[in-house]
Design goal:
544 residues, 13 helices, binds adenosine-5'-diphosphate
């Protein structure tokens, strides 16, 4: 064989071994990439790099360090290091004499072709590499979005030249390693927050149900499952809510049955809707009072995606309320009879004393009569409250002239107050209503106007017709009511400042009764008020 031919064959062999080496590495990198894409945890990523990556590189030992937020770093995985080194590696402060620190600081790779040539400053690294049976090494920064997040270190048995391809291979491996860490750390963070959310939802006192647009349960917590008559939430995943609700009799606050076709509301509501429902499990007979609050989650295009409903068990609260109602009902009925006979005897006494003439005794008995009248008004109000809560407030309607009724009431009030009551009547307005009940409402508005405007004595009562409605307003220039309390004054027993403002007697039920009366007539009650300037209470009724 000629010299020339021999040279060609030798070159050919080298090229072939080079290309098979490159192929082996390319295959190796592809394999590592595939394994990394399946890794779910930090330790799985580390294991893949340590075992598969190092094998392709024929590295003897090495480690992966990750940077902490405080600037220190941690060796999260290592392979082939002497045992006595391992213990110290949890959190290492940066140090000028550590090669890892140098790479973290300069953000550049560092190659040690031969440990014997290593700068004296890095003697720790030399001792370390030698102790692991190696003579060369490389430290490659792990970079993510331009930031160094750690260092990948390899050591090799023999001194190395580190050609361009070697370096390219190590850089590729480091990039894959950094990306895989980033992904699994995001996954872990997501899992942690999902687990936390699950714990929160699981331990909330309210039932939580999430359903999709087909009414299928996407999520339900244990409390929700329990309210649905199930021992655990897992049995209800994917179950159709409409089908599930067939096991219950559901009614509203007044025990009127309601049919809930799933709880999905269409179109999706931005605000939270709230209903109080009474739920009876048909099989077990178990019954609950629930406050169900629903809100919708919509997609970017506004289409409804999910509905979240929270179910608050208010059975105990309702039970207390029922007992309170029972007490009010019993107490007011028990008070009614002795009070009536007391009033009867007061009347008899008064008649006798009137015959005698103006005596001190007569003044006393007249005062007694006034107090008994007040007491009777309170008892009547309490009786009304229990009538309302039992749905027994009866109306006996007739056609009458509202203007006349207003004159009667104002004249009565004028007798007992120094306030100046002005009546503004634009026209004659007839209504078809329960005269006594409307008298009650106007009296309540007027006595409140007197009670809550001790300094400004002017009161204006007006009656008019607007859009086939009769409108009655009572305007005072007294204390007024803060905005935040204005709707609450119609609630049962509600008094602004808890009734402690020294405005005199009252139970906070006059406006509650008034509202019920007007509602039952198909009218509307309303309030306009400015704190410190006065209030206007109005109601409207359909004209006759
Ligand atoms: P009360 O017997 O306490 O007057 P109401 O139901 O009639 O009960 O009124 C409820 C509360 O509304 C009152 O306690 C008072 O705080 C407030 N309120 C009612 N009318 C007026 C008014 N004209 N001006 C200021 N506050 C008022």
């Amino acid at each position: 064989m000629s010299k020339q031919l021999l040279k060609t064959v030798k070159l050919d062999k080298k090229a072939r071994s080079d290309s098979t080496g490159a192929l082996r590495r390319a295959k190796g990198i592809a394999h590592v990439a595939q394994l990394l894409s399946m890794a779910q945890t930090k330790s799985e990523v580390a294991k893949t790099i340590m075992e598969e990556g190092f094998a392709v590189l024929t590295a003897k030992s090495g480690d992966i360090s990750l940077l902490h937020e405080d600037g220190s770093f941690e060796i999260v995985a290592q392979k082939g290091y002497p045992k006595n080194f391992s213990a110290k590696w949890s959190s290492i402060p940066q140090n000028e004499e550590l090669l890892t620190s140098r790479v973290l600081r300069t953000k550049k790779a560092y190659f040690i072709k031969n440990t014997d040539e290593l700068d004296e400053k890095y003697s720790t690294a030399r001792t370390f590499i030698k102790a692991s049976g190696s003579q060369s090494g490389a430290l490659i920064p792990l970079k993510l979005r331009g930031k160094v997040v750690g260092v990948l270190q390899f050591t090799f048995k023999k001194p190395q030249d580190f050609n361009r391809e070697d370096k390219m291979f190590m850089y590729t491996l480091a990039d894959q390693c950094a990306l895989a860490f980033d992904r699994v750390m995001a996954l872990e963070a997501l899992k942690t927050s999902r687990d936390q959310l699950e714990i929160i939802l699981k331990n909330t006192a309210d039932g939580i149900v999430v359903q999709d647009i087909n009414g299928n349960i996407v999520y339900i917590n244990d409390v929700g499952a329990h309210l649905a008559g199930y021992s655990g939430a897992n049995k209800l995943q994917g179950v159709n809510l409409t089908a599930l609700l067939k096991n219950f009799e559901i009614s509203d606050e007044n025990h009127v049955p309601i049919r809930i076709q799933g709880l999905i509301s269409r179109p999706p509501q931005k605000s939270i809707s709230q209903v109080l429902i009474h739920v009876v499990h048909k099989k077990s007979g178990e019954a609950y009072w629930l406050v169900a609050k629903s809100s919708s989650i919509s997609g970017a295009g506004g289409q409804l995606q999910l509905q979240i409903t929270t179910l608050q068990d208010v059975t105990q609260v309702k039970e207390l309320e029922r007992r309170k109602d029972d007490f009010i009902s019993v107490a007011s009925h028990e008070l009614k009879t002795p009070l009536s006979s007391m009033k009867l005897f007061i009347e008899i006494l008064l008649k006798r004393l009137q015959k005698v003439g103006e005596t001190q005794e007569r003044v006393y008995v007249e005062k007694l009569k006034q107090q008994a009248d007040r007491l009777q008004m309170l008892v009547n109000d309490l009786l009304d409250v229990s009538r309302i809560s039992n749905g027994k407030l009866q109306l006996s309607t007739e056609r009458f002239l509202l203007n006349e009724l207003i004159e009667d009431v104002t004249n009565e009030i004028r007798l007992v107050t120094s306030h100046l009551i002005e009546v503004k009547a634009e026209e004659q307005v007839y209504v078809f209503a329960d005269k006594y009940r409307i008298y009650q409402v106007i009296t309540n508005f007027l006595t409140n106007a007197v009670k809550y405007s001790p300094a400004n004595k002017k009161i204006i009562v007006s009656v008019s017709k607007k859009n086939s409605k009769a409108v009655v307003s009572v305007k005072d220039f007294g204390k007024g009511i803060p905005k935040s309390d204005q709707q609450k004054v119609f609630e049962r027993f509600y008094q602004v400042s808890g009734g402690k403002d020294g405005s005199g007697s009252g139970l906070g039920i006059g406006l509650y009764i008034s509202k019920e009366i007007i509602d039952r007539h198909g009218g509307m009650i309303s309030i306009k008020s400015n704190k410190g300037k006065g209030s206007t209470f109005s109601f409207n009724l359909p004209v006759a």
